[in-house]
Amino acid sequence: MSNIHKTAIIEDGAVIGENVTIGPFTIIGSQVTIGEGTTVGSNTVIEGKTTIGKNNRIFSHAALGTIPQDLKFDGEDVELIIGDNNTIREFTLFNPGTKGGGSITKIGDNNLFMGYVHVAHDVIIGNNCVFANVATLAGHVEIDDNVVIGGLTPIHQFCKIGSHVMVGGGSVVTQDIPPYCLAEGNKAILRGLNLNGLRRRFERDVINDVKKAYKDIFESGQPISDVADKIIASNANEHVLALANFVKNTKRGIPFNRK
């Protein structure tokens, strides 16, 4: 049985799972689906075609599924999908997709969104990520798994952040950040590998292989695409290949100090 406060407004058509808690003065729109075990704090607004999975914790004054902040939006059928076990703190703002970006904003599982985080239209986020206070993701940003974004950090539209990346607080990200890397600054540039994060998850030989690939690509002075081609042709390590393929496929370029 769900626990819905008497002052909450649940519009006809909304689907509320088992053991869902909804706090006072919260508004749930008619196209919203909330999975079992999720808690929604007071004064929260969830509207639009928004699907929320199981066991999420949504704190007060969050706004989820409100229309995109895109002047081209004209009322199209768009969607926000949130997975399981996410923590969504106070005053966060998540928008659905737009027709021009695939119509879906999608968030995976086990992520932490601290206060005032903004997830704009057509953003795709993986699993096990942390977004510190006032991290701001513009439209069409892609974030892979196990990423940490420091507080007060904006990420430019269409940027892609690879897995296991750490972006320092107060950075301004305007280009793609490859997997396993540490980036920081205004504008953010690569500062090396995210070694603390890698040591928590990988064996030393894997880290050493990624270190060598990083040095070959970004510190040899050769064109990074050419080095990535050589690595792809000669290396079987999946993590090294992930780094090299990211470099080959970047759309916005990679910010690093050229030798």
Task: Please specify the SSE layout and strand pairing.
Layout: E1 3-4, E2 9-10, E3 15-16, E4 21-22, E5 27-28, E6 33-34, E7 39-40, E8 45-46, E9 49-52, E10 57-58, E11 63-64, E12 79-82, E13 87-88, E14 93-94, E15 104-107, E16 112-113, E17 118-119, E18 124-125, E19 130-131, E20 136-137, E21 142-143, E22 148-149, E23 154-155, E24 160-161, E25 166-167, E26 181-185, E27 188-193, H1 195-201, H2 204-218, H3 224-234, H4 238-249
Parallel strand pairs: 1-4, 2-5, 3-6, 4-7, 5-8, 6-9, 7-10, 8-11, 9-12, 10-13, 11-14, 12-15, 13-16, 14-17, 15-18, 16-19, 17-20, 18-21, 19-22, 20-23, 21-24, 22-25, 25-26
Antiparallel strand pairs: 26-27
Structure description:
This protein is an alpha/beta fold. The chain folds into 2 domains: 3-140, UDP N-Acetylglucosamine Acyltransferase, domain 1 (3 Solenoid); 198-249, no CATH class. The protein has helices spanning 195-201, 204-218, 224-234, 238-249, and strands spanning 3-4, 9-10, 15-16, 21-22, 27-28, 33-34, 39-40, 45-46, 49-52, 57-58, 63-64, 79-82, 87-88, 93-94, 104-107, 112-113, 118-119, 124-125, 130-131, 136-137, 142-143, 148-149, 154-155, 160-161, 166-167, 181-185, 188-193. The strands form 3 sheets. It has an 11-stranded mixed β-sheet with strand order 1-4-7-10-13-16-19-22-25-26-27. Strands 2-5-8-11-14-17-20-23 form an 8-stranded parallel β-sheet, with no helix packed on it. A hairpin with a 2-residue loop joins β26 and β27. The mean pLDDT is 97.
Question: What does this entry show, briefly?
Answer:
This protein is α/β, with parallel strands linked by helices and 259 residues long. It contains 4 helices and 27 strands. Helix 2 packs parallel to helix 4.
